[in-house]
Amino acid sequence: EYYSDSSEGEGLRKPALYVEGEPDFDSGPPQDGFEFLRRVRWEEARCERVKVAAVSASKLCCEQTAYMPDIPPIAHCDPELLPLRSWEAEFVSDFSKLRLKKLPHFRDRDAWRVYCFGTESRSSDNDNGETSDYEQEHTGQLPSLSTLLSMDEVSRATLLRHHISWLDDLENLAEERALWLYALSAVVDEPLDLDTSAAVRELLRKCALIRASRNFRGERELEMLNIIITIAGNYFGQADR
């Protein structure tokens, strides 16, 4: 009678072992595997096919384990600090074109800097016009196009994560850092791997917090924050929906 339902004969509910007879609960613990299977089948026949549990979300929050960090939401700022929706759409479109077509056409660093943030470059490169190594950003070096294009996809993603992690102890977004973040975002491969995607989400969170706390130093830094937030949130899809 345990197998009378025809639906049990197919799929995942098909019994692996067939047993006959009624379970003998009066005999104490099962004396062999067949008796154990009889009891399992007897109990299974009396269970609901679908069980819906009433779960209290508030209770789960209180019982959350320490292994799951309490991540704060993305900070919201005054509406007056936000860019226009039309500007965001136009910027994302231009940024997409930059990644797809225009990037190889920037042959000098001044043109690259002007395109990124609209300012002329300060002289900080070597005599040959190229940055010797991207790790020299600690001394104020700016990202040269030749260096970016010479890196493989793993190095680009790794360096982008490093620049994001270096924002942890900073209260402002320096222009050199913003240029590196913009440049690496323009050359990092898609789709983003899980670690890089999480880092970009953290970049959005950090820049939004600086903007919301009004710790930025003037309109120039606010513009850079909005650019980086738009890249992380709108282009890479890390904004809250």
UniProtKB/TrEMBL annotation:
InterPro entries xref list: GEMIN2, Gemin2/Brr1
Residue span of region Disordered: 121-141
Subcellular location: Cytoplasm
Keywords: Cytoplasm, mRNA processing, mRNA splicing
GO cellular component annotations of the record: nucleus; SMN complex; spliceosomal complex
Assigned protein family: Belongs to the gemin-2 family.
Name of the featured protein: Gem-associated protein 2
Organism the protein comes from: Selaginella moellendorffii
Lineage: Eukaryota, Viridiplantae, Streptophyta, Embryophyta, Tracheophyta
